[in-house]
Amino acid sequence: METEVKLMKGNEALAEAAIQAKCDAYFGYPITPQSEVLEYLAREMPGRYGIPLQAESEVAAINMIYGAAGAGGRVMTSSSSPGISLMQEGISYIAAAELPCLLVNVNRGGPGLGTIQPSQGDYFQSVKGGGHGDYHLIVLAPSSVQEMADFVFLGFELADKYRNPVLILSDGAIGQMMEKVTFPQHEIVKPQKPWATTGKSPYKERNIITSLHIQPEKMEEVNLRLTEKYKKISENEIRYEEIQTEDAEYLLVAYGLSARISHKVVELAREKGIKAGLLRPISLYPYPYDVINKLADKVKHILTVELNAGQMIEDVRLAVNGKVPVSHYGRMGGIIPGPDEILKNLETYIK
Amino acid sequence: MQEETLINKEISEDAKTEQVCIEEEYELVYERPYTLVDRHMHYCPGCAHSTVHKLLMEVVQELDIQDKTVGVAPVGCSVFAYDYLDIDMQEAAHGRATAVATGIKRILPHRYVFTYQGDGDLAAIGTAETIHTINRGENITIIFINNAVYGMTSGQMAPTTLSGMKTTTSPYGRDTKTMGHPLKIGNLIAQLPGAFYVTRTAVNSPLNVRKTKKALLNAFKYQQLDKGTSFVEVVGNCPSNWKMTPLQTQDFLTNEMLKVYPLGDIKLPAPEDLVNLDIEEGVV
């Protein structure tokens, strides 16, 4: 059977994928530029699959996720930057209690109430913690409407595989733009969750979902177990895309929306005879440090392109470890740079 | 040595005989519910928590719903409730117990879901969740222990602290002009259409203990109806932070607390809602 091609907004494609991935419940709160997710699911879930619930706040929504994930449900929430900030306490609890769930941030400009326009200013918050304590989310960065849909399936799968929250870090442009998207049949496998609080049968010990470990030795044991898990995730789940890196002398590193634009920059540069290439991290945690480190052996300069003041550049520098110069080009406030503008900046590093 | 052993043996034989007598002459009328874990509680002597825990687990035992019950513990003194209650439980972030319970109930609509929260958790940091959960009429039971003080953090002012009451953060007494008034959250949420049953009890006398048990039993049974939220407020005490002996707290509770938080039903289900439900009537 041929898969139907649809024209959809990124947010709607993501929401549709959630239903097809058999998401049991969605808890959300309206915020621009991602309200379409809640609207779509409020309209489409009843009668198809899953329960949509509009919470009284993002704080409530993320704690509903905690409860529902702890009860064994496949659950999801979405929001945009200020709302995601409100969720951070809950996300830390969810990571600590190892509850699988899918979180979506359609990144808008900040800090503060900021702007409703696209931004990548939440990179640090997404990959370095956000909430308190030692934990990591698995972070996936889509750069197309198709990936908004695809990463829902992947996200749920990874969340269940590692009992870890997964964050799709999108932005206002990817969420709002319309593109072709297909929904190939996915085989939806929901694993058994014997740890979930579904009621204690007489034949087993009670299940307790908690992030409280008041004994230092016990807390450290949990910390070490989490660290071990993150190590395993780093070994197995690094995802990235390389575009014309084989012979590249100048490497752009960009994710999400910036990667789309940077792809065009590579094309324009090649037309001018500049051997440019692009490395697009798809998983922002775990981050493709080794790949960038190896590319650094071959290139003269690395330019990170981000819609922020320079955040991912820190990870690129960690990866490059001083081998070649790394510089940053970015715009903020919801302004999206054009390819020409970025190319012009790249050319300043070409001797 | 030998003599001592002999005496011990005699005593033990006596004890055996006595044991037999007890078994023959007396009927077992009370024991720890099997749903309550057999271990020492961390609660202070005289605190209401241990009594309410026991009543709660008696209810789960009597309704035979151990395998169908999921509880939510708060942040506060009862943060470790799951150490004592032999049922599946989740530990919520401070104030978010009813949001967590909402998530559980939406995934498991046929389980009995309850939260167990103190006044700081339910009526200060979690007020929004409390009101909106009840406004949605979530089919859960909320057990609210109101002892007018933050217990676990050692006696700070709570939203329910009485006017003039001294705490570590109202050292000169709660001045309602600058610190707000004792929040009667039970009365407040009873106004919401989603509140199915709201009652206020105490465990300061054998009679009130029995009334609390009845309230809890009904509050759980009402989940079979899916008509809204049941809310049982238990006016509790805090010997450690009220800086009183357990007996003195009983006087303070009777003479001061119950004046502000009078006992009794605040909202009762309509009789037609209770057709076919075997509810607990009078207790004495």
Outline the secondary-structure elements:
The complex is a heterodimer of chains A (351) and B (284).
Chain A (H helix, E strand, L loop, with lengths): L4 E5 H11 L4 E4 L6 H10 L6 E4 L3 H13 L4 E5 L1 H16 L4 E7 L15 H5 L10 E3 L4 H18 L2 E7 H5 L1 E5 L25 E2 L6 H21 L3 E4 L6 E4 L2 H16 L4 E6 L1 E3 L3 H8 L4 E6 L6 H8 L5 E5 L8 H9 L4
Parallel strand pairs in A: 2-3, 2-4, 4-5, 5-7, 6-7, 11-12, 11-14, 14-15
Antiparallel strand pairs in A: 1-8, 6-13, 10-12
Chain B lengths: L1 H24 L22 H15 L6 E5 L14 E4 L5 H11 L4 E7 H7 L1 H9 L5 E6 L2 E2 L5 E2 L18 H4 L5 H6 L4 E8 L3 H16 L7 E7 L3 H4 L3 H15 L3 E4 L17
Parallel strand pairs in B: 1-2, 1-3, 3-4, 4-8, 7-8
Antiparallel strand pairs in B: 5-6, 7-9
Description:
- The complex is a heterodimer of chains A (351) and B (284).
- Chain A is of the alpha/beta class and 351 residues long.
- Chain A folds into 2 domains: 5-197 and 224-236, 3-Layer(aba) Sandwich (Rossmann fold); 241-347, 3-Layer(aba) Sandwich (Rossmann fold), CATH 3.40.50.920.
- Chain A has helices at residues 10-20, 35-44, 58-70, 81-96, 123-127, 145-162, 172-176, 216-236, 256-271, 289-296, 313-320, 339-347, and strands at residues 5-9, 25-28, 51-54, 75-79, 101-107, 138-140, 165-171, 178-182, 208-209, 240-243, 250-253, 276-281, 283-285, 301-306, 326-330.
- In chain A, helix 6 links the parallel strand 6 (138-140) and strand 7.
- The relative contact order of chain A is 0.13.
- Chain B is globular, with a radius of gyration of 21 Å.
- In chain B, strand 5 and strand 6 (156-157) form a beta hairpin.
- Chain B is built from 10 helices and 9 strands.
- In chain B, strands 2-1-3-4-8-7-9 form a 7-stranded mixed beta sheet, sandwiched between helices.
- The A-B interface holds A 24-25, 27, 51, 53, 55-57, 59-61, 63-73, 75, 89-90, 93, 197-202, 206-212 and B 66-70, 72-73, 79-80, 82, 86-93, 96, 99-104, 106-108, 111, 128-129, 132.
